[in-house]
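User: I'll paste a sequence; please echo it back and then give the predicted structure.

Assistant: Echoing your sequence first, then the prediction.
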Amino acid sequence: MALDTAAGSIGSSSIFSFVPRISPSIARITLAAAFLPMALSHGNHGGDRIPEGSTISDDPIDAILWIHIFLQTFTFGILFPFGMVLGIIKSRWHVPVQVGSTALALLGYALGHLHKGRQFNPKNVHAKAATPLFFLLVAQIVLGVYLKLHLERGIHGRIRRFIRILHSINGKAFPLLSWAQMLFGGITMLGFCQGDHLGQCAAHFIMGSAFIAYGVLLTIVLLVGQLWLHRTGRSQEFFDSAVIAAWGCVNTFTEHRWGTEWVRNDWQHTTMGIIWWSAGLAGVWLSKGRDGEPKRNFIPGFVLFITGWAMSAHPQELMISAMTHQMFGYTLMAVGVTRILEISFVLKDKASVSEDGAQTHSFQFVPVFLLYAAGFLFMGATEEQMEFVAGSGMDAVAYILIMYSLAFLVFLVVMMFINVYDRAANPHSKIALNGNDRGGDETRVHDADEFELDGLMTDDEDDDNAASRKLLKSEGGEQNWFASPSAARRNDERLA
């Protein structure tokens, strides 16, 4: 309240009038002192011990580098996404969590330059991506502080909406950027994805990450997104088929280097792209009924099944690689089969188990989890990784079990984040004996509104919300929790 009062007394004055004047020379000295340890330690990455033709030295990974790996994985993989969820639900813990996460991230950034063990090529992709990620983090902090000051008069009132949009987009994109940076870190640590291996390595990591992202999206829609899906007037298979068709078009024209001779893998990958866009277009057509109502269909599940069958028969040189690819294919085939069974027999072509979209069937989690597992198996099946595992003495069964374990952990973390959001979006939920009853219409209205994820830090309300409340008072209509987004927002405000 004190901060809001101060903001109101500021008027159109600049925010920087509260900041003491700092000499440019003092500012440069302060920044230089802050980054001096990193600059001095950067000499350890000179690469003087890296053998010719390699990107890493033969030195072992020391304790400092291990601390850097685990600290940054915890910070960027757990804390920052958790803080993002807290921002979406407008929790008062959003700022403390993000401030603490930033402090740990800076510590991990410094440790990444202070280690004395293995050397890496200074131009590696992990180091190149660290700098822009760091500046995006700083920009997110600056935007968040500006929004927290609630400056709304003068020019601040005109630019505040754009600042909120930038803060929201950057915050929601940060987990994706963090995921890519963690993958870059693993690739750099082992010296993989170099030279002729770059193409197939990128294909494995991109497609594997895509399967995991698909699983995350299905988890969100399954647990908290049914009302949003209903309001779109589309079935889940419409969106799935549209993405499948678009991805198939890309694969059709990128898997073969045009102008060169066709080889066996080119034929397989290109024809896989053709069946994807062909089936995707059919799935889009089947996603609408005769009168335009949304309809479920089998197309996405069948595409996953046929893709898994093709990948299970993909020729490999190493036995462990063949077994890993085969298990990936079987897992993807299981995704397709269980998805078709879910739609046709569990849901019987309905959007969800219950009309309010609040209940789930235990079988619905099977295809969702298998997507996580398929993604990790495919990411872990590159040529260099297979050679590394074969040389370590680990058998294929143990390696596959490790991939499934990682899938379970990520699946667990995603469900925990969704649960945090769900509990905050449904504060008056009632848990019945079967654990499915989450409350009445009041809860569902709030869920439908909050699923739109409108910004990370929006403590103030805009003019549109105020106008909506005024209109609601004049209309006094009956609430409808399957109404349009604006109507759901008006009902939510009336209930509040």
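Confidence is low (pLDDT under 50) at residues 1-44, 429-463, 469-496. Residues 201 and 254 are 15 Å apart (CA to CA).
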